[in-house]
Amino acid sequence: MYAIVDIETTGGHASANGITEIAIFIYDGSQIVQQFESLINPGVPIPRYIQSLTGITDDMVASAPKFADVAGEVFALLKDKIFVAHNVNFDYSFLQYHLLQAGYDLRTKKLCTVRLGRKIVPGLPSYSLGNLCRSLQINVEQRHRAAGDAAATVRLFGLYLSLDTNNAISAALKTTSKEQFLPTNLPPDHVKTLPSNPGVYYFHDQKGKVIYVGKAKNIKKRVNSHFTGNNPSRQRQEFLRNIHSISHEVTGTELMANILESVEIKRLWPKYNRSQKNIEFKYGFYTFEDQLGYLRLVIERRRKYTMPLHSFPLLVQGHQMLKGLIREFDLCPRLCFLQKGDGACKPLTGHKCKGACDKKELPEYYNLRVRAAIIHMQKAQPSFMIVDAGRDAAEQSCILMEKGRFYGMGYIPRETAITNGMDVKEWLTQYPDNEYILNLIHQFAGANNSRLLKFS
């Protein structure tokens, strides 16, 4: 037995909007055996554009029952039926949410007449209810009213039953079928053909623009997890409606998937990714020669398209490192911009300036120590490779860290001998790094020493 449902609402997501009208037709596959329809007082004003669309006004629902008043009857009609609607996830999410608020937990199988239409009557220009019914010569009375749209959906579903020679309906109802959970606009083949490998997946909107990037140890399993449940929030419902296609890139390891996800989020700036958009090193060490010929070591905010000597997220970390270099290499605090103003500097505790700030030390002597400090700073940063599984048995993956910076990653033939970073660079793709990526790599390196190849 099928419960064919249509509702009208005050907005697009259940958790912040109310139902203004509901119609339920109980259909046995050949005729309507029971029906329920009612205006509903949503408890909030109906937006003007929705009043214009549906014709339902605040005055019309003022004396109508609230949803809680009819929830018991609605639940009794739906609880043991197959829930059918055009764009079923919208109607189902609203009713499930509002029934739960009234104390009823709705859990039924669902059928979407949009998705079924694409399988049973493929090739039509549009699968919106109005356009679909026009294409199939189904009369719709009172469009955008619950009873009118539900009655049209009954006739549409009856036609599907008669034309379903490939058993699309029974296939969608199988317990193993995940199609009823998929976004309405996403073709099932986009999910069925996904691999079970580690990698990165991309959700695209109707124009092909990437709206979300995710990483996974198992791409197929992770993608399917996005579509389970019926979260009624506006963000989730809008997110699902906007998914029209999926693409992916397989990686050799889960670590590579995590790194690539971070790179792609920063590159594509997808609408529905919230985290990692602002993960970056804010400060770095830079060097330049002033007008008198002295090399100046300075902490500045990271500049686009420049590569600092060393980067760090917090200014205090840079100051601590700079003070250590000043003490160890007898650098001048004022020439390192640690002290401001003219004249001689005030040496740090346990340190004596040799007078470069007061021009008592020639630039060529002072610069030797600055260069030594830079070499020391760079040597202190580790260089190593993480060599791990490839995408298939013929290759191995490689992640290269060079002097504390993430150089890039890629795949090399399994028989290739590796002794240092120069051996593999031709196989690797260079990527920008950030604090998140470096933390990922260092955490993995600390726990997987057997996969590291260190070099100077």
From TrEMBL:
SMART domains: EXOIII, GIYc. One of its GO terms (biological process) is nucleotide-excision repair. GO terms for cellular component: cytosol. Residues 196-274 form the GIY-YIG domain. GO terms for molecular function: 3'-5' exonuclease activity; DNA binding; DNA-directed DNA polymerase activity. It holds the Pfam family RNase_T. InterPro entries: DnaQ, GIY-YIG_endonuc, GIY-YIG_endonuc_sf, GIY-YIG_UvrC_Cho, Ribonucl_H, RNaseH-like_sf, RNaseH_sf. NCBIfam families: dnaq. DNA polymerase III is a complex, multichain enzyme responsible for most of the replicative synthesis in bacteria. The epsilon subunit contain the editing function and is a proofreading 3'-5' exonuclease. DNA polymerase III contains a core (composed of alpha, epsilon and theta chains) that associates with a tau subunit. This core dimerizes to form the POLIII' complex. PolIII' associates with the gamma complex (composed of gamma, delta, delta', psi and chi chains) and with the beta chain to form the complete DNA polymerase III complex. This is DNA polymerase III subunit epsilon.
